[in-house]
């Protein structure tokens, strides 16, 4: 049965949508200012944690808002579900950056400055005179904040699309256990794809990235996005095989 499902044009479209979704998650991670341990010590810009934690955190919130929209709005369209997922992820990442900024500004007492650009691409503010010696920047400059919100939106859309596709798929299968638990299985599977596509860019990013203005962004993104597309394509095939009872 699974083999026949994979030959179905609609199933092939579902596989493609899942592959695109995973790629969006990967691309979104590159937009989020990841600072890791250096940022926690105010020696680099960004949020003081890693790509996997940020992607998983925003993904969880995005899935919650997307699933709520799907379950509580009769006939909710894909666009509505994706918008709900994007909004949830954006709120999570924006909140993390805002609270981190408060700690940096009022706890550590540092100005927000980027080492990657001479002027903030959003505000035009000069950066060099605010840089501390021996650091790669500090805080979360405006451009990093905006980049993070964009990344969260892309990740939220990607995860929500996986959820929307799989709930519709699993709800219609003959397996009563799978069909009655379609939302749970879809949510767990979407989280799995989130984790996979957060680990991929963690190797490319190599620790820290400030956002779309970072030189590392253009250098590593194409390779990471291609890798994520292939991995997510395989995840899509697995999702269809699960629907077929494998």
Quick synopsis:
This protein has 246 residues and is mostly helical.
Q: How would you describe this structure to a colleague?
A:
The protein has one domain. α2 packs antiparallel against α6 (142-171) and α5 runs antiparallel to α6. The chain is mainly alpha-helical and 246 residues long. A 3-stranded mixed sheet has the order 1-3-2. The model has no long low-confidence stretch (mean pLDDT 86). The longest helix has 31 residues, at 78-108. The protein has helices at 2-7, 9-31, 36-40, 51-72, 78-108, 142-171, 176-180, 182-205, 215-243; strands at 44-45, 113-114, 136-139.
Work out the oligomeric state of the chains in this entry. Answer: single chain
Share of helix, binned: over 70%
Q: Which residue ranges are poorly predicted, with pLDDT under 50 across at least 5 consecutive positions?
A: none
Cα-atom radius of gyration:
19 Å
DSSP strand count: 3
Structural class: mainly alpha
Amino-to-carboxy terminus distance: 9 Å
Q: Give the helix tally.
A: 9
- In what order do the strands lie side by side in the largest sheet? 1-3-2
Largest sheet: 3 strands, mixed
Mean pLDDT value: 86
Number of domains: 1
Succession of helices and strands: HHHEHHEEHHHH
Principal-axis shape: elongated
Indicate the proportion of strand residues. Answer: under 5%
Please tag this protein with its features.
246 residues, mainly alpha, three-stranded mixed β-sheet
């Amino acid at each position: 049965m699974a083999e026949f499902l994979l030959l179905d044009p609609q199933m092939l479209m579902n596989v493609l949508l899942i592959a695109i979704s995973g790629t969006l998650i990967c691309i979104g991670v590159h937009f989020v200012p990841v600072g890791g341990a250096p940022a926690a010590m105010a020696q680099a810009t960004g949020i003081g944690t890693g790509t996997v934690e940020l992607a998983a955190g925003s993904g969880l919130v995005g899935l919650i808002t997307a699933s709520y929209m799907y379950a509580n709005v009769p006939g909710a369209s894909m666009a509505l579900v994706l918008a709900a997922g994007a909004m949830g992820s954006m709120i999570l990442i924006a909140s993390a950056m805002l609270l981190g900024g408060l700690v940096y500004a009022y706890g550590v007492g540092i100005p927000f400055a980027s080492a990657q650009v001479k002027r903030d691409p959003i505000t035009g503010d000069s950066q060099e005179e605010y840089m501390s010696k021996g650091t790669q920047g500090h805080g979360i400059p405006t451009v990093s904040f905006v980049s993070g919100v964009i990344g969260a939106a892309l990740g939220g859309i990607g995860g929500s699309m996986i959820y929307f596709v799989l709930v519709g798929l699993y709800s219609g299968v003959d397996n009563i256990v799978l069909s009655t638990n379609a939302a749970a299985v879809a949510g767990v599977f979407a989280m799995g794809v989130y984790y996979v596509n957060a680990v991929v860019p963690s190797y490319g990013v190599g620790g820290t990235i400030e956002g779309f203005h970072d030189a590392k962004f253009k250098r590593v993104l194409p390779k990471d996005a291609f890798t994520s597309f292939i991995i997510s394509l395989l995840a899509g095939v697995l999702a269809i095989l699960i629907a077929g009872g494998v």
